[in-house]
Amino acid sequence: MKLKPLKENKNIFIDDKGRLYTKNLVKGQKVYTEKVFKYNNEEYREWVLKKSKLSASIKKNIGLVPINEGDRVLYLGIAAGTTASHISDIIGNDGMIFGIDIAPRILRELVPIIYKRDNIIGLLNDSDKPDSYLHIVPKVDIVYQDVAQPHQIKIFLENIDYYLKNRGYGFLAVKARSINVAKDPKEIFKDVRKSLEDHSLNILKEVRLEPYHKDHAMFLIENK
Ligand SMILES: C[S@@+](CC[C@H](N)C(=O)[O-])C[C@H]1O[C@@H](n2cnc3c(N)ncnc32)[C@H](O)[C@@H]1O
């Protein structure tokens, strides 16, 4: 097996079978069911496509992956840290993830992960109340959202207004069935597009996440 960096982001790697990886920031730490292995004296973790909407969207050619070393990231719906751990690998120890989740039980699962990762802070908050973490979260380079809620677009836009820097980026993972089970996902994604455009955000790319995540899409936006 041979790993090479992606042209879209030199801190994400691909093997000859098209599987994605990040370099493990915490040697020996496994976060979920991913494979961890040594290659050229470095340790890598597979970024499993079915476990992360971000790796699935990279696989589905979202194109630009504007996540850089030293970035500050506001992560809404961090859960047990599956995707956040790979972002943590990419941004390194000069970056910081402010990870919000409303569910204490799932956030407890995050504790052993962040205990060893100095670049993730876990916050038990409702991301629908963005002013409740104003005292902790600064302006950020990226807002990442994966909360699977009927009003998830409103939550995303409010957090962008509070926290995203000018020319910052946003990743919005939309689960059509959480917004409306009865409506055709295509129509839902069209409505999402309109809401983002009405908010003067620049939509850089929209990708559907099948076959890895059914009825999901990822939107990559830029704050004009
Ligand atoms: C699909 S899971 C996130 C998975 C995670 N993004 C990953 O890829 O590793 C959705 C998470 O959003 C959280 N959530 C739902 N509503 C929320 C809200 N209003 N504020 C913060 N978190 C919320 C849930 O508790 C759940 O952990």
TrEMBL record:
Classification via InterPro entries: Fibrillarin, SAM-dependent_MTases_sf
GO molecular function: histone H2AQ104 methyltransferase activity; RNA binding; rRNA methyltransferase activity
Gene3D superfamilies: Phosphorylase Kinase, domain 1, Vaccinia Virus protein VP39
SMART domains documented for this protein: Fibrillarin
Protein's UniProt keywords contain Methyltransferase: yes
EC number: 2.1.1.-
Keyword tRNA processing: yes
Binding annotation for S-adenosyl-L-methionine: T82, T83, D101, I102, D126, S127, D146, V147, A148, Q149
GO biological process, any: box C/D sno(s)RNA 3'-end processing
Keywords for this protein: Methyltransferase, RNA-binding, rRNA processing, Transferase, tRNA processing
PANTHER family noted in UniProt: FIBRILLARIN (PTHR10335:SF17), RRNA 2-O-METHYLTRANSFERASE FIBRILLARIN (PTHR10335)
Subunit-level organization: Interacts with nop5. Component of box C/D small ribonucleoprotein (sRNP) particles that contain rpl7ae, FlpA and nop5, plus a guide RNA.
HAMAP family: RNA_methyltransf_FlpA (MF_00351)
Entry similarity comment: Belongs to the methyltransferase superfamily. Fibrillarin family.
Function: Involved in pre-rRNA and tRNA processing. Utilizes the methyl donor S-adenosyl-L-methionine to catalyze the site-specific 2'-hydroxyl methylation of ribose moieties in rRNA and tRNA. Site specificity is provided by a guide RNA that base pairs with the substrate. Methylation occurs at a characteristic distance from the sequence involved in base pairing with the guide RNA.
The name this protein goes by in its record: Fibrillarin-like rRNA/tRNA 2'-O-methyltransferase
Species of origin: Nanobdella aerobiophila
Gene: flpA
